Amino acid sequence: MAVAAPSQGVAAACCGGGFAAPALIVGDDKAQFTSSFGFTDVVVDNVDTQGQWRARDEHQKVQTLRVEAATLIADRWQMGLALPIIQRTYAGESSSGVGDVATTLGYEYLPDWDYNPYRPKGLGYLQITLPTGKSRAESENGMDSRGQGFWAAGVGTLLTKSWLRWDGFVSFEAHRSFEKEFENSHMKGKLKPGYGSTFGGGWGYNTAAWRFGGSVLWSYEDAVMIEPAGYSDGSVERYATASLSASYIPNDEWTGTMTYVDQTVFGEPINTSLGRGVTLQMQRRWGR
């Protein structure tokens, strides 16, 4: 039986990208490798600081290739790595490159050895995000913005549970991004981000070889101040990502998943852009 995980089918806010999802082993495996390709249509180009939605006649297109791997390093310890490559296309122009790379150290603090009918399985993790993507403030025209662009450290937890043919998860993470110097053709100075968090949950129904599920994740980022004073005090960013997925699981080693993602359904977004898209994912697992 497959169990839902927050990294499956999650799309970050389209302009710049959100905090990277962790690469975690959720099941009883010793290693896994996951690759996914997503196509997103930015249907709302800008939600301003007052919550007003604005859309252009021609939308930006975003394609994301994401590769991630995770392995056990001890009975209850694991580590993982996630690498996204992002291409943006708009008005005949395109820009591509690496997004924010994330490394993860996880610990199974609540094992499910006795298959308790009520107690969930709990994973905790520490995540370090590398500033390999360019932030919106550093971008020249928005096309080359492919991440938050900051060093960041975060902690999170993932609770999963299965009941017969049903499964579900609840996840929460909080992180702190760190300031950096920047320069583009318009200005130079210092970017001072703050804290951020992601909270959500999902469910799934399993048959012999299929799983159908959905999830909603809410994301928040503090305002990014730009110094020297007078450039910008920034604004908080928030949005919600809803997804519906169908997975084919022919055996214990392979899973193929198709996910529809929509950021226009839930929440009260602010200071972001919103997209709809489809992600195709393949996962290979190695049992213990």
Which percent range describes the beta-strand content? over 45%
Highest CATH level, the class: Mainly Beta
User: In one word, what is the shape?
Assistant: globular
Distance between the termini: 16 Å
Q: Examine the coordinates and then state which fold CATH places here, giving the name of the CATH topology.
A: Porin
Number of helices: 0
Determine the structural class based on helices, strands and strand pairing: mainly beta
CATH architecture: Beta Barrel
Number of strands: 17
Uncertain regions spanning at least 5 consecutive residues: 8-12
User: Can you tell me the CATH superfamily?
Assistant: monomeric porin ompg
Order of helices and strands: EEEEEEEEEEEEEEEEE
Number of domains: 1
Largest sheet: 12 strands, antiparallel, barrel
For the CA atoms, what is the radius of gyration? 19 Å
Q: Describe the strand arrangement of the main beta sheet, using strand numbers.
A: 1-3-4-6-7-8-9-12-13-15-16-17
Notes on the structure:
This protein has a single domain (29-287), classed as Beta Barrel (Porin), CATH 2.40.160.40. The protein is globular, with a radius of gyration of 19 Å. The chain is 0% helix and 58% strand. The chain has strands spanning 29-47, 53-54, 61-72, 77-90, 93-98, 102-110, 121-129, 152-163, 166-177, 180-183, 188-192, 195-206, 210-221, 225-227, 237-248, 254-262, 272-287. The model is unreliable at 8-12 (pLDDT under 50). The two termini are 16 Å apart. Strand 1 and strand 2 (53-54) form a beta hairpin. With 288 residues, it is mainly β. A twelve-stranded antiparallel beta barrel has the order 1-3-4-6-7-8-9-12-13-15-16-17. The chain has a three-stranded antiparallel beta sheet with strand order 10-11-14, with no helix packed on it.
